[in-house]
Amino acid sequence: MPTESHPQPLLSIAGPTGSGKTHLAMLLAEAAQARNITVELISMDSALVYRGMDIGSAKPTPAERAAVTHHLIDILDPSEAYSAARFASDATRLVREIRERGNVPVIVGGTMLYWRAFAYGLSSLPPADPVIRARLDAQGKVLGWPAMHAELMERDPITAARLEPNDSQRIQRALEVVQSTGKPMSAWLAESPSEDGRAGSLIPSWLRLVSLEPSERAELHHNLESRFDGMLKAGLIDEVRSLRAHPGIHADLPAMRAVGYRQVWEFLEGQINAEQMRYKALAATRQLGKRQLTWLRAIEGRTVFNPFDANGLPAALQYCLDQISTIK
């Protein structure tokens, strides 16, 4: 978004999945309240927007949401679509409304495409083409997404090089762009005058980005494994079973492509067994965390804390508290 839209500094807490962003945000809101500052949280998460997707998205609990106002959670059914452009618009409106109430907005989440849209704006990529998208979906199911990735490598090697071979949603979009326009996505992005949030992009002056980044990836992986096993015990399979029974919800929806949900859906379809489901879900979660860290580490000017270091979380909390106290 343009700098002039946000003359006041704005705090954002980001990090890979499982790094403790929500925990830090809740601690911040509690500490701020002791200083008579009311924090309202704006979720920057592509799964939390959907109703009924509670366990697998690690959605804030009802108690957490009762204690601190959360925005952009449970605003859509899983059959509906949400976009980075819509997030940028919604978040900009919410920042203004929260400030008008005399409170402090804090953006929290790890969907970095949403971050890019909000912080820098999106390049003018062509709109989705439903016919081409449906055809690519069908091809992906028959050939497999690694084969589709190989096709993208021939058509748009720059984009393909930054995507995982099983990243179906982004591979599909990149192929859709090149097939509908004859021009690769990398060329569209290169021609955009806006920053894209990568490759050393500077943070806009009105944003304060706190990034929770583990120094050892093994620590994050261990946390992700424990968290997913906890989700299974909490009823993730039953949650997905309930979603599958909902009219209008199918496996190809963006909501059902979310990490964890996709793999449990495959298990319920009988395509994989329970052990394979757990393995694939953990692998996909680790890949997601890796992509998020890649995004974050390319952004210059962020303030980094290791959430698994003994002093990391207290230091992050103090920094965030100092930032919003100054803003207030």
Task: Explain this structure.
52% of the residues lie in helices and 8% in strands. It is built from 14 helices and six strands. A six-stranded parallel β-sheet has the order 3-2-4-1-5-6, with helices on both faces. Helix 3 packs across helix 4. The radius of gyration is 20 Å and the shape is globular. The two termini are 22 Å apart.
Short overview:
This protein has helices at residues 21-33, 62-67, 84-100, 112-120, 130-143, 145-155, 157-161, 168-181, 185-191, 217-234, 236-244, 261-268, 274-297, 312-327; strands at residues 10-14, 39-43, 70-71, 104-108, 207-212, 303-305. With 328 residues, it is of the alpha/beta class.
Give a quick set of tags describing it:
alpha/beta; 328 residues; six-stranded parallel beta sheet; 14 helices; 6 strands
DSSP helix count?
Answer: 14
Radius of gyration over all CA atoms, rounded: 20 Å
Q: What is the molecular shape? A: globular
Q: What distance separates the N and C termini?
A: 22 Å
- Regions with little confidence, pLDDT below 50 for 5+ residues: 193-197
Order of strands in the sheet with the most strands?
A: 3-2-4-1-5-6
How does the major sheet shape up? Answer: 6 strands, parallel
Strand percentage? 5-15%
- Counting copies of identical and different chains, the oligomeric state is single chain
How do the SSEs run, as a string of H and E?
EHEHEHEHHHHHHEHHHHEH
